[in-house]
Amino acid sequence: MTALKDILLDQIAAGGPLRVSDYMSACLLHPVHGYYTTRAPFGRAGDFVTAPEISQMFGELIGLALAQAWLDQGAPAPFTLAELGPGRGTLMADVLRATARVPGFNAAAHITLVEASPNLREQQAQTLAPHTVRFADDVGALDEAPLFLVANEFFDALPIRQFQRDGDGWRERQIGARDGALAFGLGPAQAQPALAQRIEDTRDGDLIEHCPALAPTVETIAARIARHGGAALLIDYGDWHTLGDTLQAVADHAPVDPLASPGAADLTAHVDFEALFASAAACRRSRITPQGVFLERLGITARAQALAQSLGGEALETHIAAHRRLTHPEEMGNLFKVLGVVPESAPMLPGLET
Ligand code: SAH
What we know:
The chain is α/β, with parallel strands linked by helices. It has a single domain, classed as Rossmann fold (3-Layer(aba) Sandwich). 38% of the residues lie in helices and 25% in strands. It has 14 helices and 17 strands. Strands 2, 3, 4, 5, 10, 14, 15, 16 and 17 form a nine-stranded mixed beta sheet that branches. Strands 1, 6, 7, 8 and 9 form a five-stranded antiparallel beta sheet that branches. Strand 7 (169-178) and strand 8 (181-190) form a beta hairpin. It is globular. The structure holds S-adenosyl-L-homocysteine. S-adenosyl-L-homocysteine (SAH) is lined by residues 28, 36, 42, 50, 52-53, 85-87, 91, 114-117, 120, 152-154, 157-158.
């Protein structure tokens, strides 16, 4: 029993069942008991491993892709170099090391990190020293300036609501209490105008997911890029459309019951790339591209061979495994997808096609 579980059971007793999104928010970002507020979840010793923690190659290639887009657009200065949900700060550190060789890029970059967890903000500032970084609570606080942005495994942490189709209406999946434990249930059938387009492609009983913060976040990024220039690389796991329950909890590298220990496990859901794509309509958008294809086109194999020259023994084995893990279709190569966003008048980012 976690302290957060007691708090949530009290809340349910007083105010009725919670939306899945309220539950996710509390689990991830509760100021005292939230997962990202209290833990250091990343890496081998943590609960899960993300692409930048697997190999420096990931951030390096992303840095060079953003720098190429910056050069393609006439090297605007100054500009905002932003990351959403930077975790330990590893990805941005690898970006900056790679872009240090691009004349003028790092000097013109105002680094802005959108991060909710005070604990992780501290870690990110440490990882990125001596660079000066600014923090923002959300994308609305980003400067009105050219914006070059990356988000890796950020959207999968944004709270989702879940709805089960019932005739022409929807019953919201809720979290209530049963015998002193948290339990899933369904609310009453209601019309949901925001889900109107999903009536065509679903059947009675189907479950779909809707992430309320996704559209406003992507619309804000796309508006900045359309107005001032820039580029965004949005990388996450998921696919075109959502169908079915993808809420997933992970602790110590293994799936666990999402209701069992709120605040003690990571909670994510697949990202709906159709919604990402639609929300960036103010800009030129790439095809949704598998991560493995994107990294291969950016030259990850040549970079891996160059790094391998100075490695031997176990370090070389780890390096070879990391390359495979990032790119192979049966590992992260296919499950993770990339959406690139640039102004209508600009060339697409390298590694992506329109
Ligand atoms: N991008 C990193 C970490 C991914 S984990 C990596 O690839 O390793 C998700 C990150 O998003 C964490 O840093 C978490 O604290 C942050 N985060 C989650 N929800 C957020 C929100 N609503 N606003 C800002 N940051 C958030």
